[in-house]
Amino acid sequence: MEMNVEVENKSVVPQEEKRRGRKSKEAKENKNEDKEEYKDGQDKFFIDVTKDQEAKEMVGKLLAEANNKQFGRLIILKDLVLMALPKLTSKDLELIQNNTLTHLEKVKKQCFEYNQKNKTNLELGEYLVTVKNILKEGKDGK
């Protein structure tokens, strides 16, 4: 919905009407999508394991084991992360990047790499038919 607001010079400027009350789930999701991108100079980082039971258990066990001591301050997740991050190799980062890809993105990546290697310019559909032999007719013509 749009409202018209008059400005001092008497021109009419369209302005989006602000809604009161709860935000819709879609608005919340759109807002959260923007936050996932790393910004240079960012001060705070959050690790959300609420939907991943296996990760939640792993973090809990590691923290319990690390704090199984008689002296010193409580060890928090930040301590574990800061100790582990420098030990990540480029091979580990590559594996993490591959684990974030969807199945379709993995196929697109294979197509891109195939085109680079063979100096071709196949589209994804052409790649699937010619290289991966998907959608080709069987030997009996069916």
The number of distinct β-strands equals: 2
Structural class by SSE content: mainly alpha
**Topology order in helix (H) and strand (E) letters:** EEHHHHHH
Low-confidence stretches: 1-9
Tell me roughly what share of residues is in helical segments.
40-55%
Counted by DSSP, the helix tally is 6
Largest sheet: spatial strand order: 1-2
The mean pLDDT is 81
Report how far the terminal alpha carbons are from each other.
55 Å
Strand content: 5-15%
* Backbone shape: extended
Describe the SSE topology.
Blueprint: E1 2-6, E2 12-16, H1 25-35, H2 53-66, H3 77-84, H4 90-99, H5 103-118, H6 124-130
Description:
There is one protein chain. By secondary structure, this protein is mainly alpha-helical. Among the domains are: 47-87, no CATH class; 89-142, no CATH class. 46% of the residues lie in helices and 7% in strands. The protein has 6 helices and 2 strands, in the order ββαααααα. The protein has helices at 25-35, 53-66, 77-84, 90-99, 103-118, 124-130; strands at residues 2-6, 12-16. Strands 1-2 form a two-stranded antiparallel sheet. The longest helix has 16 residues, at 103-118.
Which features would summarize this protein structure in a list?
single chain, 142 residues, mainly alpha, two-stranded antiparallel ribbon, extended, disordered N terminus
